[in-house]
Sequence to fold (144 residues):
Amino acid sequence: MPDDTKTATADASATPGRKRLVSGPGLLLVWLYGVMVVGAVSRSAYQISTEFDRAPLAYALSGAAALAYAFITYSLVRGGEKARKAALVCCAAELAGVLAVGTWTLVRPESFPDATVWSDFGMGYLFLPVVLPVTGMIWLRSKR
Fold:
């Protein structure tokens, strides 16, 4: 009969001090952030490389969103208290960005000749850009 305590001890010592963030609903969160990384990176890379002069602000903001999604995804997968805190701060910054850009695109739509990931609070992405950071902050606070 195998000794499960040795395996559990070996797994815990492989990542000392790191609390796992990717479990249960956290796995879904990582998956959704991963999808957003792919969508935002591909969108912004294409737009920045082919038509940046048309709407530089919108495309730069989409690139910033892609970086935020990538950082949060990495932090969630990495785990640990420092990564949790960093992801929490980044989720708060992401939410602030979504709310600011979403409001800006509704109040002054002429400032955005083309949409960003965060335009209209992420309507083009099924409002995931506004739901994910809120969900992420709730999840990360519960993992203290």
About this structure: The radius of gyration is 18 Å. Residues 4-14 have pLDDT under 50 and may be disordered. Helices lie at 4-14, 25-51, 56-78, 81-107, 128-142. Residues 88 and 141 are 8 Å apart (CA to CA).
